Automatic annotation (TrEMBL):
<dbReference type="InterPro" id="IPR016142">
    <property type="entry name" value="Citrate_synth-like_lrg_a-sub"/>
</dbReference>
<dbReference type="InterPro" id="IPR009061">
    <property type="entry name" value="DNA-bd_dom_put_sf"/>
</dbReference>
<protein>
    <recommendedName>
        <fullName>citrate synthase (unknown stereospecificity)</fullName>
        <ecNumber>2.3.3.16</ecNumber>
    </recommendedName>
</protein>
<keyword id="KW-0808">Transferase</keyword>
<comment type="pathway">
    <text>Carbohydrate metabolism; tricarboxylic acid cycle.</text>
</comment>
<dbReference type="InterPro" id="IPR016143">
    <property type="entry name" value="Citrate_synth-like_sm_a-sub"/>
</dbReference>
<dbReference type="InterPro" id="IPR036969">
    <property type="entry name" value="Citrate_synthase_sf"/>
</dbReference>
<dbReference type="InterPro" id="IPR002020">
    <property type="entry name" value="Citrate_synthase"/>
</dbReference>
<dbReference type="Pfam" id="PF00285">
    <property type="entry name" value="Citrate_synt"/>
</dbReference>
<dbReference type="InterPro" id="IPR019810">
    <property type="entry name" value="Citrate_synthase_AS"/>
</dbReference>
<comment type="similarity">
    <text>Belongs to the citrate synthase family.</text>
</comment>
């Protein structure tokens, strides 16, 4: 708010207090909390400090030894199946350049003239190291190598002040993009990434959708990788090490690699989507790329990417889009579910003949933006604040 207060929705206040929303309103009636109404916002809002004060009455012992449940962020809000960056609808922002969205998420300033540059020498060193890797290594492996090598060429990386961190993050995004195989560093980050992921037959009009995908994947609240980033930042590790913590987390099949099964399924479904769907159901395994643990009725990121993919002017393979739509319709009718961002990125990859691991690479590079924003926030918190008590279950020592 303009008066400087941070506010929580009723659902957020209830989650923080560990009670039902009805109990929150009971606290209001008893004078224990103050509700606030904002024009154009549905429901009551509650002051963060007031909620924290009330929570502290029952959780004082816990908060002395662990603060995991008290992570505050101004970066991303997930509310009513809508994704917001700093209070702005992410879908409405997604047509802007990746650089401008990164700068907005980091600073709150929306500027379309932002550019990130890479040092050609560093890019050459990264590409040289990548050339020594296994020919069939994944893009995520190449990205990790690029991060580690780039760090060694940045002697001021240990400056974790906001201005320095933002500069480093911009340089790194351009360096990673160019390291994936671009012949020139004088391009936008999205174009650098496109050059590294496309095949000889890819329609360059897909760059529009790639840019939207990068923007929509930039942050998504406190996912596992983002929590790892916050923990690393709390130790005052420099940005490159902090980002490495996030990259380690998304390498798992349940996070950054979740789109791979959806890609394999769609490749099989291109010719006969009904047969592929029937085979998937017959095998007893779920159809990948549908439903979400946070969204209830739709994933706004997938909705926007699929809308762009259906635009004939952008050159996506119509056979892939047709198969994708059949699968979506069948899954909606039969199971009342919806496609998520993994399905949308997999469809994008199939429709433009990109590298099979393109969804994972897009997710990783995009999420560097959000991780940087969370690192900036964590650097302003008390250091080493994440000390979660463990419960020993091993053999007790003999007295």
């Amino acid at each position: 708010m303009n008066d400087g207060r941070d506010l929580l929705t009723t659902a957020q206040a209830a989650a923080r207090l560990g009670v039902k929303p009805e109990t929150v309103y009971a606290y209001v009636s008893r004078g224990m909390l103050t509700s606030t109404r904002l024009p154009g916002v549905r429901g009551s809002m509650f002051d963060v400090d007031e909620v924290e004060s009330l929570a502290g009455r029952d959780t004082a012992r816990r908060t002395d030894i662990g603060a995991v449940e008290r992570i505050r962020t101004r970066t991303t809000l997930l509310d009513h199946d809508t994704l917001y960056y700093r209070g702005r609808d992410a879908v409405e922002l997604s047509s802007r350049t990746f650089e401008s969205i990164a700068q907005f998420i980091w600073t709150g300033d929306l500027d379309d003239d932002v550019q990130f540059t890479a040092d050609p020498v560093v890019v050459q060193r990264c590409q040289g190291a990548i050339a020594l890797m296994a020919p069939d290594c994944r893009s995520i492996d190449r990205i990790r190598i690029a991060v580690d090598i780039a760090a060694t060429y940045r002697p001021m990386r240990f400056d974790i002040g906001a201005k320095s961190v933002i500069v480093e993050a911009g340089h790194l995004l351009a360096t990673i993009g160019a390291s994936l195989g671009a012949s020139s560093t004088e391009q936008s980050v999205a174009k650098l990434i496109w050059d590294g992921l496309q095949s000889e037959t890819s329609d360059s009009r897909g760059l529009v959708i790639l840019q939207a995908g990068l923007n929509l994947m930039a942050d998504h609240g406190l996912a596992a990788s983002t929590l790892a980033v916050r923990v690393a930042a709390s130790t005052r590790a420099h940005l490159y090490s902090v980002l490495s913590a996030g990259l380690g987390c998304i390498d798992g099949p349940l996070h950054g690699s979740a789109a791979e099964p959806a890609y394999r399924f769609l490749m099989a479904a291109r010719e006969d989507p009904i047969a592929a769907l029937a085979q998937q159901l017959r095998s007893g395994t779920r159809v990948p790329g549908f439903g979400h643990v946070i969204y209830t009725d739709r994933d706004p990121r997938a909705e926007e990417l699929l809308r762009l993919l259906r635009d004939p002017a952008l050159g996506a393979d119509p056979a892939v889009i047709a198969a994708s739509d059949v699968v979506i319709e069948e899954m909606s009718d039969r199971f009342d579910t919806f496609p998520n961002s993994d399905f949308a990125l997999a469809t994008f990859t199939c429709a433009y003949g990109l590298r099979p691991d393109a969804p994972e690479a897009i997710f990783a590079i995009a999420r560097i933006v959000g991780w940087t924003a969370h690192a900036l926030e964590e650097y302003d918190e008390e250091p080493l604040r994440f000390r979660v008590p463990g419960i020993y279950t091993g053999i007790r020592p003999v007295s």
